[in-house]
Amino acid sequence: MEASLQNYAVEVEDLTVAYDAKPVLWDIDLKIPQGKLLAVVGPNGAGKTTLIKAMLGLIPSVSGVIRFCWGKAAIGKKHIGYVPQSGSVDWDFPATALDVVLMGCYGRLGWIRRPGKADGELARQTLKKVGMAEYAGRQISQLSGGQQQRVFLARALMQQADIYFMDEPFKGVDAQTEKAIVLLLKELKEQGKTVVVVHHDLQTVADYFDWVTLINLQVVASGPVSEIFHEENLKKAYRSTDTLLRSGMAV
Amino acid sequence: MNSFFALLGDYTFQTVALGSMLLGIISGVLGSFAVLRKQSLLGDGVSHAALPGVVMAFILLGSKNTEILLLGALVSGLAATLFIIAITRHTRIKFDSALALVMSVFFGLGLVLLTYVQKIPNSNQAGLKRFIFGQASALLQRDVHLMAACGLLLLLLVMLFWKELKLFTFDSDFAHSLGFSPKTLNLLLSAMIVLAIIIGLQTVGVILMSAMLIAPAVAARQWTNRLWVMAILSAFFGGISGLAGTAASSLVPKLPTGPAIVLCVSLLVLISLLFAPGRGILHKLYRQEKNRRLLKTEGAAGNVSSI
Fold it and tell me: Which of A180, A236, B211, B266 is most buried, judging by how many CB atoms fall within 10 Å of its CB?
């Protein structure tokens, strides 16, 4: 059996998601091996964010089975890290950067139990890791877009998960922050974690990632970057919108 | 001044003031969450929707007991909230529209029932209308006990689920991904807000109740960037307004208590909007002016100032 040869971190079978009557993801089958840095790439409206949210169970799906594994054991939500799009929350919320990072351990704590001293210490260290140590007490609306993204990343690291899902972590960040985030991603990979990233910039896919999934409502191709990330597949993925050539020239 | 101290010793004043303070504290804490969730108007909707419940309780049970009438209010307030939640979840109608729909339908029904009730003999003394405008001066000690019990329950729940409520209010998707069901938390928080509104109906009435929920929280938000400070400050603003409003209405003849309380808390909002450091309007203007001067004197080219 193939499954015994290779352990998959995420297995998606037959996933279909629809808003009203219109399907936004159609019959997705996806196997993500453990320990890979995976980019989910596709044109606007291809269903990248929807795919991540459906895999996490945040939105209902019409059909489909999703399994998460670490080693050979099935794992639950506590071991899944999530970085939502930073635009999805109101940053004017009365909280400091440290408060937000601390939220990363809430899942581990479960209902009612409060974070303790050790959690606070861990949150500080995690902030330091993303280069934000001096901003721990800063109100989150007073952070720049890149800093907010780093806070979200730190919150996910705080989860100490085995599999991470990140929705456009590079959106609106400067080159320096992008570099810092890439280093963190590679570090996660070295620890054997699996990281799934919604990514927009086709130019950097080969540099940052070793595995790629091209989607456009359906999975166009999924596999090692060196094997499937080529012109022909990209054309297939971007065919409907025909934006590949234009974006290729613009970038 | 003498009359003020005489007032403090007055039994009726003590009862009403205590009730109003309790109301301010409770609605202050829960209002913080309502405001941060951008559901400020939930208070308005629920309080209006409570009216048919009050009248129905009277018609069906024939009782003028505050507890019974408030129970009716609670049932219909909760029903309205569930309607709103169901509508936003299952249709494309957004929260504000769903709220407006449900609120006007329920309040309309309440008014129809109220007119019907007035034709029944013995209904005049029922004093159902006091729920529309509120009648704090009619608060009895047992009403205050009821408020205290509900308030205690609500504050305990807030403390118990503080972490979850905070997380859910800030980022419900992330809460969901951690395994905290947003559906459950939404129901819990909404039910808590409904209860807070219901216990305030008798004091300030359905029309002014939303102010009690929103105003202290909005004022408190201006002064702090921490959620727990905001909640405590909001409770303090609510409580102090309750006390000050009651005192004012006792000292000034013919000044009704509910509106006096709301005016007090509105004054706090005004002060906070103007003078709070950082977020206050004056502070912002000062900063702008300072930057402008800075740019003029040492900053950009000469043509900037002429714009």
Answer: B211
Chain A residues with beta carbon closer than 8 angstroms to that of B226: 94-96, 99
Q: What are the residue ranges spanned by the domains of chain A?
A: 1-75+200-251
Residue in A84, A99, A155 nearest the CB of B173: A84
Domains and CATH numbers, chain B: 2-297 (1.10.3470.10)
Contacts of A77 in chain B (CB under 8 A): 177-179
Q: Digits of tens for pLDDT over chain B (307 positions)?
A: 567 777 778 888 999 999 999 999 999 999 999 999 998 888 889 999 999 999 999 889 888 788 888 999 999 999 999 999 999 988 989 999 999 999 999 999 999 998 888 887 766 656 777 888 888 888 888 899 999 999 999 999 999 999 999 999 999 999 999 999 999 999 999 999 999 999 998 889 888 898 999 999 999 999 999 999 999 999 999 999 999 999 999 998 888 999 999 999 999 999 999 999 888 999 999 999 998 888 887 755 555 544 4
- Is A112 within 8 Å of B179 when comparing Cβ atoms? no
Nearest residue, CB atoms, B178 vs list A93, A94, A106: A106
Structurally, at CATH architecture level, domain A1-75+200-251 sits in 3-Layer(aba) Sandwich (3.40)
- Residues of chain A with C-beta less than 8 angstroms from the C-beta of B161: 111-112
- Residue with tokens 């609500």, as numbered in its chain: B154
User: Among A106, A158, A166, which would you mutate to test the B interface (most chain B Cβ atoms within 10 Å of its Cβ)?
Assistant: A106
* ipTM for the whole predicted complex goes beyond 0.85: yes
Determine whether the interchain pair A82/B174 forms a contact, defined as Cβ–Cβ distance below 8 Å. Answer: yes
